[in-house]
Design goal:
mainly beta; Beta-galactosidase, Chain A, domain 5; nine-stranded antiparallel β-sheet; seven-stranded antiparallel β-sheet; 1 helix; globular
């Protein structure tokens, strides 16, 4: 997709991912998300610029939970075994329902009887991408096609390169403290080392936590690049910030619920987990706006 000086490349066959989002300028091209590296023969979602999280985000402890009389055991994911993580959307191909120079709509359907991924509720997922002169909008929808309520959540997992010169601004007043497995243990005021109320140099930060209490808005400035990225998400009252040691990328992920929400004792108003009724649709929208720094 191309509009003005902006370009987006999608890879529906590899997890319904964004492979590239770039902005051209007089001096060249700035990557607004970490792009898919060239030369990868069979790229997967972890190589991409952004992938979808559906029908849940984050870890589920040991892939196991109970909901409305169902005892669910999901297969472990390689990146965090024995836990399950990030749902199914990022691990399956999506169908292109519509596509033109500035819009695309991707779909996939999960059958609750499918033995390959033992989520016992059928659902449909949709991503709609719209590119205009100022940025990219991504709208995700999850519709319950089962005959009973199911636990539900959505999220996006964008990667940002250039951590050495990047600054993140994002008011995130509460953090979910985690154990050594990365599983939340409770929520607390965000300590100073993880506060982003004012622009914070990401090279100084190491973190892998979920934050709550923000408004879904944050901004990234690169001190050596002409464009900044302003992000606004609705339907995403929580944010995962991931900045691993020794890497030049970081993530700021808008999500609808906290990790392992299906196993948390707190109410939906705290965790964000939704009990989605039959035929009901959950929606999340994220707007990525490119603007001069």
């Amino acid at each position: 997709m191309t509009r003005g000086n902006l370009e987006v490349t999608l890879m529906p066959e590899a997890g319904g991912c964004i492979a590239r989002f770039a902005a051209s300028h007089e001096g060249g091209i700035q990557q607004m998300l970490r792009p898919l590296p060239p030369g990868i023969a069979a790229p997967g979602p972890l190589d991409m610029a952004c992938y979808p999280l559906v029908p849940f985000s984050g870890r589920i402890t040991n892939g196991r939970f109970s909901f409305a009389g169902h005892q669910v055991q999901l297969p472990p994911d390689d990146i965090c075994a024995p836990h399950a993580i990030h749902g199914r959307g990022w691990r399956t191909a999506w169908e292109v329902a519509e596509s033109d120079a500035t819009h695309a709509q991707l779909h996939f359907h999960h059958d609750g009887r499918d033995p390959r991924w033992t989520w016992p509720w059928s659902f449909e997922a949709e991503q709609h991408f719209a590119l205009d002169e100022t940025g990219l909008s991504v709208t995700m929808r999850l519709t319950n096609r089962a005959g009973e309520a199911m636990p539900a959540g959505l999220g996006l997992h964008p990667f940002f390169e250039g951590r050495a010169t990047a600054r993140l601004t994002a008011p995130l007043p509460r953090v979910w403290e985690s154990d050594e497995r990365g599983i939340p243990t409770g929520v607390a005021p965000t300590p100073e080392r993880w506060r982003f109320d004012e622009p914070r140099a990401m090279r100084e930060v190491e973190v892998d936590h979920c934050f709550s209490g923000g408004d879904g808005r944050f901004r990234i400035d690169w001190m050596d690049r002409p464009f900044a990225l302003r992000i606004a998400a609705t339907g995403a009252p929580h944010t995962i910030v991931f900045a691993p040691p020794g890497e030049d990328f970081f993530c700021a992920e808008p999500v609808s619920h906290v990790p392992d929400a299906v196993n948390r004792p707190e109410p939906e108003s705290v965790t964000g987990l939704v009990a989605l009724a039959p035929g009901e649709t959950l929606e999340l929208t994220c707007r990525f706006v490119v603007e001069p720094r």
